[in-house]
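[job 4471] stage=fold_predict status=RUNNING
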Amino acid sequence: MLVIGPKSMAERIKREVSHFLSSELKIELSNEKTVITNPLTNRCRFLGYDIVKGKDYTQIVKAKNGRKVRSVTGVLQLLVPGDVIREKIRPFQRHGKPIHRSDRVNTPVEGLIAQYNNEIRGLANYYCMAANVARQIYRFPYDHYYSLVKTVGLKFKLSVRKTLRKYGVDVKRKHGTGTRRILGVVHETKNGPKQLAYFNASIRRIKRPHGERIAEYEAATNHESELIRRLSYGQCELCGSRSEPMNLEVHHIKKVKDLRTKYEGRGQPNWVKTMIKIRRTSLVVCVCCHSSVHRQRFSA
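[job 4471] inference complete, writing structure tokens
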């Protein structure tokens, strides 16, 4: 609640609100969370934003000597809290450098890119109305992006350079002309091939929210299932042979943990090791490998 007036007025309103909540709704107002703050001297935290009374230098007026100067007027501003961004970036860095996420290694590359895109896009969209959004979040995309690159590199045991060489796509630069290479993949959809790359939009302040859709968002929210994408690759996940998607089959199990229990204490076939490694209850295989799986005689 914002009050324009003296502190005594704010204290009186707080007492009235507390009385209404206790008498009508039978709930107590927390004195620890409900504080009276002057935004001119202290920041007020609300819904993840810091509210302050800042200075606006956008209005240009004429001074007494006739020269045009920027007017300083006190306005309420929404700011991105620094501690929130530091907490958001903590899982993606160690000792000030970006690191991989070992808990995401078994996710397919397309799923990794979509997951990372949703994280940075959600952060940028939530704080897009903050006056300092570009200045506070500038570090997050760097650590976040290279965490993704290193996670993909760990998945396939590749260096950063080799990962970008294998899974890099050329996208248009934010400023100027030309292209730059970032992590991304080209996947098949029913409308043809589509490119899914890491978030490449500018993070800047938006005074009013808008409903425009970002082109990259459409690719990131592709509603095709992961199994359909794996089938569209046309490759057996056991022997690696290439084939038309219609000639491939899918082997299903109920639970991955059942495999560990069933084959505990004896040798695990390669198809069991593969399903445990990718943590999936389905396996895209060719006809020959599928027959071997059911005979439990598969050998690489």
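[job 4471] summary: The chain has four domains: 1-36, 41-79, 82-223, 229-295.
[job 4471] exit 0
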